[in-house]
Amino acid sequence: MPPFRGSPIYLILVFFFALVTLFPLANSDTLPQLDELHSLAITSHQHKKHAQALEHITSAILLLYDAEHSTISRSQASSNLFNTKGVIHKGLHDFPNSLLAFDLAEELDDTKTNYNAYYNRANCLHYNFRHQNLTAEDVSTFLSNPSRRALPGDLEAQFLQAAAADYEKADLIIRSINDPHYDFASFCNDYAICLRKLRDSRGAIDVLLRAVAHSPENLFTRGNLVIALKDARKLAEAAEHSRVAIELDPKNAQIRHNYGLVLQEMGESGREQWETALSLDKDIYHSLSSIGHDEGNRGNLTGAVAMYSAALNTVKRVGATEEIGSLQVQIATACIPPIYESVSHITRTRDSYTINLSRLLNQAATSENEIYDPLTSTGSGSLGYYIIYQGHDDVEVRRLLAKIYWKFSPSLVVLPPPQLLLPPLPLPPDRAKIHVGFHSAFFYRHSVGLLMEGVISNIDHTKYHVTVLIQTPEDELKDDVYTRINSSADVIVELPNSLEDAREIIASHNLDLLVYGEVGMDSMGYYLPFSRLAKRTALFWGHALSSGIANHDGVVETGLDADLVGGIDYFVTSKMFEAEGERARAPQDRYSETLYMMEGLTTHFMPPMAPRANVDLAYFGLPTDPSKNIYLCPQTLYKLHPDFDALIVNILKLDVNGIVVFPVAVKVEWTEFLMERMLGGEAGEFRDRIIFVRRMDFDEFIAMAKLANVVLDPFPVGGGRSSLEIFSTGTPIVMPYHRTNILQLTFGMYKTMGILDLVCYNDEDYVKTAVAVGSDRALEARLRQEILSKNHLLYRNELVVEEWNEFILFAVSNPRPVLNAYFSLAVKDRHLDQKHQSIELEGGAQLAYAIKLNHDDPMTGQSHGIMVRIAVGEDPLVYARGLAEKIGAEPVKFRWIATLLQRGVRRLERGVVDTVVLLLNGGEVKVDVRWGDDLALVARFVGIRYGLNDEGIDWLRGVLELRVPQHGGVDWNLDGCFLTVAITTCKRLPLFIKTVDSYLASLGGVEKASRSVCSFLVVDDSSAESDRQEMMARYPSFNFVWKAGEDRGHAKSMNLIMNLVETRYLLYLEDDWLFLDGEGEGYVRLVEEPMKVLFGSNAAQVLLNDQSSRACAYADPMEKCLRSGNVGKAGWNRDGFWVEHEFGSVYPAHDFTYWPGFSLNPGIWDLKRLRKGLGGRVVFDSEDERFEQSFSVLCLNKGLDFAHMARISVRHIGTEVSSYVLNGLERPFDNV
To answer: Signal sequence span per UniProt (predicted)?
Structure first.
C-alpha cells in the first residue's frame, strides 16, 4: 500500500477536483517553515531517502492545508509542492500517487507557468509504460483524467500522446519565459524521444534543432539529432551535424562511430571514423563490427571474421550479452564473398555457409545466444544475398538462414491482431474494396520500383484499395518513379526503420493481401515477413529467388499455431520463367512459398527512358574503329560465375576483332578481384580486349547498350530489368538458358516476342551465337529490326494487369497455403510396398530404429530377411550381440549390425535440422532429419516403418539430400570423435599445465572437447614421480606413457605416438604453448576450420598459427608479428581463413619461406595422407639432432602439401629453457 494511504492528504488527492476553490495563501509566518521543509524534502530525495522526503513534503503541504474548508489554495507555492511530491512518489515507483500529485500541481498553478509539473508528468507517462508493470490501479488513475481518457489508440499510445501533450505545454511555457538557467537540452531530448516513439520524426527533428540552436555545445543533444536525421534519411544534414560535434569534442568515440554509420549510408567509407572511435575507446564493439562489415563487403572475409570475433570478445568482456546472438550470426555468415576465385571456391564457401548455420541451429536456444535485435545481425553475409550467384538451387540454404531467426529471435514473431485471423472474404460492412498493400525499400528508379510501378498503378482500383508501404528513402531518391508510384496509391505509408513500429503500422492497415517487392535485398524487408502482418502475403521476384521464410518452419521452431506465425504464402512468377520438365527438380521444389505462375511477364513494365543523346563509343573510352565488335556484359560483376571466364576467352579466340566490355563494380576491390581472376587465367592473353568502363547513369546505360553489337547475358543470374531496357534499343542479347539457375527472365521476354534464335542450350552454342551476331553486321541488323518490331509486347502489357487482378482475387478467396507441396510430399503409388505390414512394437514400447537385414543361413545356405527392431532405451550393443549369437553371425557382421543400431538410436539425441511431411495412406508422416544423420539410414527406416518399397526409399533419400545440403559437410560427416590430441612433455610441469588448461578452456572443457577428441595421449620423458602423480590427478581421463633411460628423446616420443594413435587425425602439441582463445571460443578456430582445410585441400597438416614469419609461427614476439601486417599474406591464400604453404619464395610478406612446410608446432595432421605420401609409415630419425627439419624436407621431396591458418591462435611460452637441455640431450643450437 502506498505511503500515507489513509492520511487526510491522500483524501485531498482523491477528491481534490471536486473541492478546489480559491482561498488566501497561508499567512506569512508559515513561509520560512514551508521553504525549509520543501528544501529538506528535495535534499532527502536527492540522497535517495524517499520515505523521509515524503514526510517532509507532506508536512509542508499540511502547512497550506485549510482545515476549515478542507482544501488548499491555488498558488505557485502549492503547485511547486505537489510537483515535488510527484517526483518523490516517482522515485518510490508509486505511479498512481505520482500522477495524482502532478495533476494537482497543474490544478493549483494559478499562473499556469509551472513547466516543471508538465515536464515531470510527461516523463512519468512517457517512461512509465515500458519500464514498469502497470497495475489496474495505475491504469485507473491514468484514465481518471477525462482529457486522457478521450485519447485514441491502445493504452501505450494514450500514454505517449498524453506525454507529448505535456511536453508541448512545458515547451510553450519554457520558450515564453526564456529561463537562461533551464536545462533545455535535456528537456528537448526527452520530448524528441517521445515524438519518435509516436513516429513523428519531423517533430522530433524540429525539437532537437531548437535544442541545438539553444545549446550548440551540448553533444548529447546533437548526437540524438544526428541519429534522428540518419533514421529519417536526411543524411547530408546528419553528416554536417556530426562534423560539428567532432569539432566540439574530437575524442568522443560514440560520435565518431555514428558519423561512420552516416557516411556508410551515404555510400562513403566510415572506416576512418570507426578506427578513430576504437583508438579512443577499445570497448566500442559496434565500431569493431562495423569494420567487420566493411572488410566483408570489400571481400576480405578473414578480416571480417576477425573483427566480428573481436567484437564478440569485447561484448562478453563488457557484459553486453544482448549482442552475442547477433555477432554469432555475423561470424557464421561471413564466408560468402561477392567474387569467387573458382568453382571449387564456390563449393567450399557454400559448404562453410551451410555448416556454420547448421551448427548454430543445432544449439539450444538460450538468453545468451538470443538475437535480440535482428537488424544488428545483418553483417557482411548480407542475409545470404550473394548465395544466388553460386549457380545452385538455394531454397534449402535460404530456409536454413530463416530457421536461425525463427529459433533464436523470438521478437521477430509478433502475434497478429484478431482481425488478421479473419478470412478476407466476404468483405466486412465497413469495406467496399479488397485492401492490397505493396511493400519495398526500393520504390524509386531501382529494379524493384521499375518492375512494380506499372502493376501498382494499373490494377483495378475500383475493386482494390491500394496501400504503398515504403521504407523511407533518402530525399534525393524520391524521383519520378517514386512520385508516380505514390500518386497511384490510395494510401502512402513511409515506414520507420524500426521493426516494432513498422510491424505495428502495417498490421494496423488490416490488409487482405500484402505483396513484398523483394525479400533479401533490404534488412527491414527480410525481417518483416516473420510476423503475420496481413491476411495473405505474396512475394514478387524483385530478388528472383525464394525467401526461405516458411510458415511451416516457423511453426516447428516457435511451437505456435500456423495462424499466428508469419511466412510468405505465395511466390508470383511466370510459366515462362519456370522450366518444368527441363530441370532435375520441379518448380515448386525450389520455393518455400506456394508458386503462383502467371502466363505473362508478371511486370507491367513502362517503356524505358530514351538513351542519352549525342553519345558514341569514345564517350565511354571505347575504340571507335568500325572493324571492332563490341560484346557488352552490362551486369554487376558479382553475377559473373567463374565458368563464364572460359566463354569470354572462347569468344575472343573466335573473334579476333572482338572487345568485351564490363562496367566496374561499386567497390574497387570487387573489380580488382574479378580482373585478377579473369586476367590471371587464360583470358590474360586478351587483357587488351577486355575493357572495364565506369559506372553509368540510367540513360547512359541505355546508350551504351544501343552502341554494343551484342549483349552477353551472364549466368547463373542474367538480366531482368536490364534486359527490358536493352531490348528497347533493339540490341540482341545472347541468353544461356542451360546455365540460368533462377528465373529464366530474358528467355521469357524472348518467348513473349516470339524470338528464340538467341536462346542457347550449351556453352558451345552460346559462344558461336555470340560471335555470329557480334561479327556479322547484317545478322545483327536483322535481329535488331525484329526485336524493335516486337518489343512493344514487353511494355505496358495489359495481360499482366489482368493476371494480377486475378491473382489478388485468388489469394484472398482461398485458405492460406501454410503447408505447400515443398513441405508435404505426396507419395506416389509406385513408391508403396503393397505387402507392407506394421513393424510397431507391442505393449506401448516406442520404436527407436528398425532395419531389414538379409541373412544367409550357414546351415541351409538359404537367404531370408530379418526385421531388426529396437526400442527407445534398449542397448543396441546388447541387442546386436544377442541377434548375432542367434543367427550365428561372424564377428564382422555383429560389429556391422551393432554400428547400424547404435547410429539409429544415437541420432534421436541430436537436434532436428529439417522436417519433411509425407502424405500417404490418407495421413501425414513427419520425417525429422537430425544433425549428423546418414540420410540413407533415415530413408530406409522411414520406408520400412511406413511402407515404401526400394524405389520409394531411394526417392525419399534423394529428397532428403536436396533438402539438407549440409549433410555432405565436414562436421556432418565426422559423426562423433575423430581426433587424438597427443602431447609430449619433459620436466616442465608448470608449462604442461598451462598448455593443457588453455587448450581445454578454449574448447569449453573436457566434456565439450570430447565431441571431436577421442582421446588425450601424453608421452612424458623423465619427469619426476611427483610431477607424474599430479598430471594423473589433474587429468584423470588422459592416457599417459612414461619414458626414461634409453627411451629418452623427442624423436622416440614422436615414433611412439605414431604407433599408438588410432584415429586418422592428430593434433600434436609440445608442452610449452598457450592457447589464446577465450573460454569455449576456440572450437571453430582450433578444430572446425582446420578440418575444413583438410577436407577441402590436399594438405597433410594444418598449422594453427600463421607462418609468414618466425615471429608469427611462434607468436613470439607477438608485437613483431602483428606489426608486420603480413598475417594471412604469405603463401597461396585460400578462402580467406587459410594459406597453402609456399617454399622457396622471395615474396616480401613471406619471411619464413625457408622452412619446407611440415612442423612440430601446434597443428592437425592427416596421418592417412602422411603415411600414403611417405610410403606407408611415419618415422622420425632419433639419431638426427635436426630430425624435424629432415622430416620436413623429406615431406617436401615426396610432394606433400602443407597449410596454415591465416591468424594467430597459440603462443610459444617455453623460451626459458629447452626440454632437450632438461633431459640431458642438448642440441648444438639450443643455446644459440
So the answer is: 1-28
